[in-house]
Amino acid sequence: MQLYKLIGITIAYLLIKSVCNYVAEINSFILSKNIDKIIHEKAVILDLEYYENPSYFDILKRTFEESELRLIAILNNIVEIFKNIITGIGFLSIIISINWMLLPYIILMIIPSYFIKVYTNKRLYKWHLKRTEMDRKLQYIRSVITGDIFAKELRIFGFGAILNSKYINLKNSIINEHIKLKRLIITVETIVAIFSSLGFILCIGYLSLNIVEGKNS
């Protein structure tokens, strides 16, 4: 009976996954068009004082870079949640039918992973906000060095090396902070994954022991 349930859940999961991928592809085109329309409509009615405010350009940069991908990611995550709920209920029903005592144990293994994910996402978001201004400075310095607007001044006054040095220092600062944050996140997530894996192995061991003792088929 459990084998039939597992086959049914697997087929349902694959079907839902295919439909979700198709819907996400269609929505990406629709969202892209609508987001561009909204950004352009808002930009043409803003007061001119906004163009003197660096934070406006930070927000604008994040909007162009993240709005489309972020909204699609939110939509995909919502679909993923429903998909995982359906498959999760199916697999939990199998676990309960084998041994209901494993259910609270599995929930306890999931909870730390959830809070760690929330924590790491918050850290990444704060870093993303901080990095926006730094990325804009990089883009400006690069445009001065490589563009045609300041090409003559760059060669006449010879400040290309100074700008390049500023660019490299800022780039190194971004890379070092990113590596430091990534190292922290990987360390924390690895520790949680190890404990979750050990918990899963203990579950298998517990079921195996029950099979040997004749408590489970």
Structure notes:
The chain is an all-alpha fold. The protein is 88% helix and 0% strand. It is built from 5 helices and no strands. Helix 1 runs antiparallel to helix 2, helix 2 packs antiparallel against helix 3 and helix 3 packs antiparallel against helix 5. The longest helix has 53 residues. The mean pLDDT is 78.
User: What is the arithmetic mean of pLDDT?
Assistant: 78
Instruction: Tell me the strand percentage band.
Output: under 5%
Q: Pick out the low-confidence regions.
A: none
SS-based class:
mainly alpha
Described by its quaternary structure, the protein is single chain
Number of helices: 5
Short description:
The protein has helices at 2-43, 54-98, 102-146, 151-157, 160-212.
Main attributes of the structure:
single chain; mainly alpha; 217 residues
Write the layout of secondary structure elements.
Blueprint lengths: L1 H42 L10 H45 L3 H45 L4 H7 L2 H53 L5
